[in-house]
Design goal:
With 65 residues, the protein is mainly alpha-helical.
Length: 65
Amino acid sequence: MWNKIQKIMKAKKISIYKLSKLTGLPWSTIANYKNGSEMSFKNACKIADALDISLDQLRKEANIN
């Protein structure tokens, strides 16, 4: 799932720091996701909302990999 998030962040020129501010999640939490920690549903929703994408977009990508 992180690969999809990272691609969208790059396309929208959003850093981890900015994503943290947009979601209200601590920078360290987002960094943990980048390093492979499992994301909660609630936080996946926050990230999807911040990136202006649907959860389906994240889910479909996660199922492909």
